[in-house]
Amino acid sequence: MRHVFCRKIVFLLAALLVVCGMSARKPIKTLLITGQNNHNWQVSHVVLKQILENSGRFSVDFAVSPEAGKDMSGFVLDFSPYELVVLDYNGDAWPEETNRRFLEYVQGGGGVVIYHAADNAFVNWPEYNKICALGGWENRDEKAGPYVYWSDGKLIKDSSAGVGGSHGKQHEYVLNARNHEHPIMKGLPNKWKHAQDELYDRMRGPGNIKDCLYTAYSDKETGGSGREEPLIFTVDYGNARIFHTMLGHAGETVENCPAMQCAGFQITLLRGAEWAATGKVTQKVPTDFPTEKQVSNRSNYKR
C-alpha cells in the first residue's frame, strides 16, 4: 500500500511539472497594429506574424486601421489582454481614446516593439516620440530633438539644424555590437552582416535611448551620413520595456523580402520582442546567425 501511495505521489508531481512547463511556455499574447504606412504594410504585417508565431513563442492578433483618409473614429483598441504590442504603423492619427489607452498600457509597464517606419509616425504626439526615442521624416527637424549617433565609444547628441531622417540606397551592411551584457545581446556576435536593407540615418528625437545594442556605419558612398548610426536599442520610458529596431524594410512580396528574410533581423526581433514582453530572453542563439562576412537567409521565416 505504501508503494502504491508513493507511486501516486510521483505521478502527481510529474503531471504538475508538465502542467507548469506548459504554462511557462504559453505563447506571448501579442497585438500587431498596422493598416497604414509609407512602406508595404500588406507584406510586413504578414511577415512579422510569421516570424513571431513560427518561433512558437508568440500568438499574434492584428489591429488593421481604416485606409488613409477614412474615418478613424471607430479604431478604438483594447490593449489590456496583451503582453506585447508591435507597431507596424505610420499613418493617420488614432482616436484620442486609443491614444489614451496606449499610453496607459505603456506607462503601466507594457511591452512594445517599434518596427522600422513606425518611428516615422505621429510627429506631433510628444509622448509617442518619447516611446520611440528617435524618429524621422514627416517634416522632423531640430525642433523634434537632437541627432543621435555613436562616436568614440558613446552616443552623441547633436542639436545642429537639419532634417530628421534619411537613408542612402539599400545595401548589405555590418552591425556592430555596443552592449554585450543586455539579455537581448547575450551570445550574439560582435559583428554580423545584414541583408540588403535601408540604413536609417540622421534620425532625431528626444534621444532617450536606454541601451544601445547595435549600430552600423552609414557610408557616404551609399548616400549615407558618414556616421555610426544606432539601429537597434531599448528606450528609457518609465517602467515600460521598449525594443526599437530600424531594420526590416518590406519587399514587394512575402517571398521577395530580403531585409526581413535575414536571419539576423528575425533573431534580434524575436529576442527583443521576448524581452519587451517578459524582461527575459529564453531563446538560444541559433547556428544560422549571420557572421561578419556572410549574410544568412531564412526565406520561409523560420529555422
UniProtKB/TrEMBL annotation:
Record field: transmembrane: none
InterPro entries xrefs: Class_I_gatase-like (IPR029062), ThuA-like (IPR029010)
Superkingdom: Bacteria
Pfam families: ThuA
Domain ThuA-like: 34-276
Name of the protein described by the UniProt record: ThuA domain-containing protein
Organism of this sequence: Parabacteroides distasonis
Taxon lineage: Bacteria, Pseudomonadati, Bacteroidota, Bacteroidia, Bacteroidales
